[in-house]
Amino acid sequence: MGLCRLFAPGKTVGYADILLDLGAIFTSCYDDGAFQRSVDYSQPPTPRLKPSDAQWAAEWLKPG
């Protein structure tokens, strides 16, 4: 799953639009933050997901 890249328009005349690579931003925040150390991803989420959401997540996370 890749996250989108989008252009943010320059707000002032003479400033160029910028490209935001949301995938890179997300990865950087995750890697630099404490998420992987503070959340036990082997355990079910708290609060519990609704059954339909849990089924969707299980399908999404299947290998291959």
Please give a structural write-up.
- The chain has 64 residues and is α+β, with helices and mostly antiparallel strands.
- The protein has one domain.
- Helix content is 39%, strand content 12%.
- It has helices spanning 22-32, 35-38, 51-60, and strands at residues 5-8, 18-21.
- A two-stranded antiparallel sheet has the order 1-2.
- The model has no long low-confidence stretch (mean pLDDT 80).
SSE order: EEHHH
Strand content: 5-15%
Name the strands of the widest sheet in spatial order: 1-2
Cα(first) to Cα(last) distance is: 12 Å
Please give the largest β-sheet.
Answer: 2 strands, antiparallel
By secondary-structure content and strand pairing, the structural class works out as alpha+beta
Number of domains: 1
Task: Please state the overall shape, judged from the principal axes of the Cα atoms.
Answer: elongated
What would you report as the Rg, rounded to the nearest angstrom?
A: 17 Å
What is the average per-residue confidence, as pLDDT, rounded to a whole number?
80
Low-pLDDT parts are none
Count of DSSP-assigned helices = 3
Tell how many strands the DSSP assignment holds.
2
The helix fraction, in percent, is 25-40%
Key words describing this protein structure:
64 residues; alpha+beta
What's the structural blueprint in terms of helices and strands?
Layout lengths: L4 E4 L9 E4 H11 L2 H4 L12 H10 L4
Quick structural gist:
The protein has 64 residues and is an alpha+beta fold. The chain contains three helices and two strands; from the N terminus they run ββααα.
